[in-house]
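>> received
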Amino acid sequence: MKYKIFENPEWKTVKFSEDEYFDLDPGEKAEWDSVRWHNDLRDYLDLEKISIQYVEAVVIDSISGISKSLHSTFWNEGENEIVEVVVSGKTSYHETIISVKIQEAPIVFEILRFHYENNLPVLSYHGFIKRNEDGSEEERIVYTISKERER
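>> returned
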């Protein structure tokens, strides 16, 4: 994993074992699509989230030949994020996810997800996530590609 701190031109590298990066069952072997311990890549780093500008992680599955790269860019004191996901090999996939904090109280994020067809971005999801005071979240879906295909 590589990361860069705001106002510092230097990139730093940190390596993790499969068990540190993935939530594996006993005896389970890690694969490119195994479940990560943390959804937010910054949670793997022992740093304040607000200080991190970029994080990149690459997982290479030597058995299947598939690789998965995640590139995250943060701004607005770490509250907003763009994530690019690229899977290549026998399976290929490209997705961009944009998360923007649009309201403080209650906290609301606007989420946009794009997949790519013929190298062009296609909106696949648009919604809002509201964080309630009790820690629960509410989702309001504006658009999903499955809704559009039902029309």
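>> The chain has a mean pLDDT of 94.
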